[in-house]
Amino acid sequence: MVLGVSSSWCLVLAQAILLCFGTSWCWATAVPRFQGVSMYNATHVSIVGEPNATRKLLPPEQFCQSLGCSCHLDQSLSCQLESDRIAAIPQLLDQDRANKITDINIENQRNFVELNEAQLQIYPKLKTLTIHRCGLKYVSPKAFFHNRDIQKIDLRYNEIEAITWTAIEGLGTIELLISDNELVCNCSAKWIQMKILQNSRIFGPLGNKIECQHPDQRSKTSLLSSYTIDGCDVPEVEVVNASAQVYERERVTLTCRGRGKPAPRVHWDTARVQAAPYELKTTSSVEEQHDSEGKLIGTIQVTTTELVLHRVDGTANGPLRCYADNLVGRSKADVNLTIFTPPRITSMKMGKRFNHHIQYDVVAYPMFNWSWFINDRPLERDPEKYNYIHQKTDTASYRGFLEFLSPISSVAGFYTLVVENEFGTANETLEVTFPGIPHNKNNNPPHRPPVPSGKPRIQEREPYVDVDIQQIPIIVTLSVLVVLVSVVGALVALRWCQFRQENYAADGTRFCAWLWLSMRPGGRRCFDRKRVVGKERIPLNMTRMVENPNYPNYFQDTMKNGKTVR
């Protein structure tokens, strides 16, 4: 019985020991990624194996020590002991601490075979990378894409067979040390040879001593600078049309052709044409080469890539670049694309730097004229209130600012920007208010007609006439009174002239009589010399009569006696 119990306890103890060793092994394999279990601070014993056991990360310094590394987290990460635990560059889980690393040094890690951009992405401030005496064979074409500040890459004493020129593309002044590797004397090393022959210092003071292994006999080496590498050249590239002109929203096809050995990859930089749909069409062919006598001397690979832009956008104005790449290097060619574009206001918003301002972005080609309106009236160019800033950001892109120098009530309102060129016009309105200034409800936003599509004719803007609506009734009333007074005065004057005429006025009233007769129906005949004047219109005052000696005395006597003669 005692023996059975003892055997049971021994079995349990053996299982516990095995579990402990198994857990330790699992922790050790996770260490390279700085993930592990704190053996002393675990809430539950790992022997039990509960899935919800709390795990606590060790400090990075302890992880580095467990790997045989030393972490000076202010600047450097160094792993130099012969532990063979590291298969990649260690990853710090704290990005803030990783941003401080400027120097990484790894040595004697035979399992470290590959270096790529994913391992280095966490260290954007890296300036020096040293990997010595490791099993490094492969460096990815974009290994240092995220490390724009790197200045020195020391990859000596490894097993690298090839490294491409794209790995250091776009980097500034850099030193790349790659001697004492297993570089092969083929097209992958041609770009290194060309740099050495150009006396480039990129490979350090001993760059001309770099050796390479023969492709057909790897045990034999030669100086890379003097080894003959045939069938490898920088590709040639050309565009079918160096310039193209098109109207916005039309379709255009641009063709780029590259030729060389090895066969080049031809591609376009499409960063400028993302605003409109496009497609790429690539074809390959073989072109024969002949000497001056017409004899065939060989063939060359030709790659053609067409960039088809559907409904081209004005933002694509400017140079579009085409590249032809192969293992040896890169060539480039440009197409100057001109897109005639009516103005388009892409954004308009309020902002503040030193002062409040309206920021706007416009796309147009050719250059446009611009003007500002406030509450649908032209904005006065008052240097004490406004500051105008207008700058060109690209071939057909512009950015401007209307800066408010004094945020007072006089500058609040609805601001309208109007832009126009020979292909069209556009406008945008933005309400401007300032803190502490009450909103003026009478300032209604202007209602401008929509901008027509296509190529509308630019119309001149009608001048604005400022009339106070409250004065219109007064003006109308005064005008009516003036007309009534004038009519009444004219009637009174004519009536008075008529009265004087009927009462045989003196010669001074003849003008009034003429005016009266002119106003009467048929009055235009009043001065006709052939007219007959009635006797009732002849003044028969005795003081104005003169005796006619030709009349008989009978009539004279009769008239004297007061008789009427008919």
> Helical content, roughly?
10-25%
Biggest sheet features: 7 strands, mixed
Structural class, by secondary structure, is: alpha+beta
Rg: 51 Å
Topology readout:
Elements: H1 2-30, H2 60-66, E1 69-72, E2 76-79, H3 95-98, E3 103-107, E4 114-115, H4 117-120, E5 128-132, E6 138-139, E7 152-154, E8 175-177, H5 190-197, E9 211-213, E10 221-223, E11 236-239, E12 243-247, E13 252-260, E14 265-268, E15 278-290, E16 296-309, E17 318-325, E18 330-352, E19 356-365, E20 369-374, E21 377-378, E22 386-392, E23 397-404, E24 413-421, E25 424-432, H6 472-502, H7 510-519, H8 553-560
Parallel strand pairs: 2-3, 3-5, 4-6, 5-7, 7-8, 12-18
Antiparallel strand pairs: 1-2, 9-10, 11-13, 13-16, 14-17, 15-16, 17-18, 18-19, 19-23, 20-21, 20-24, 22-23, 24-25
Helix pairs in contact: 6-7
GO molecular function: ATP binding; transmembrane receptor protein tyrosine kinase activity
InterPro entries: Ig-like_dom (IPR007110), Ig-like_dom_sf (IPR036179), Ig-like_fold (IPR013783), Ig_I-set (IPR013098), Leu-rich_rpt (IPR001611), LRR_dom_sf (IPR032675), Nectin/Nectin-like (IPR051427), NTRK (IPR020777)
Pfam families: I-set, LRR_8
What does this structure look like?
By secondary structure, the protein is an alpha+beta fold. It contains eight helices and 25 strands. Among the domains are: 60-182, Ribonuclease Inhibitor (Leucine-rich repeat, LRR (right-handed beta-alpha superhelix), Alpha-Beta Horseshoe); 236-338, Immunoglobulins (Immunoglobulin-like), CATH 2.60.40; 341-432, Sandwich (Immunoglobulin-like). It is 18% helix and 29% strand. Strands 12, 14, 17, 18, 19, 22 and 23 form a seven-stranded mixed beta sheet that branches. Strands 1-2-3-5-7-8 form a six-stranded mixed beta sheet. A four-stranded antiparallel beta sheet has the order 11-13-16-15, with no helix packed on it. The radius of gyration is 51 Å and the shape is elongated. It starts with a helix and ends in a 6-residue tail after the last helix.
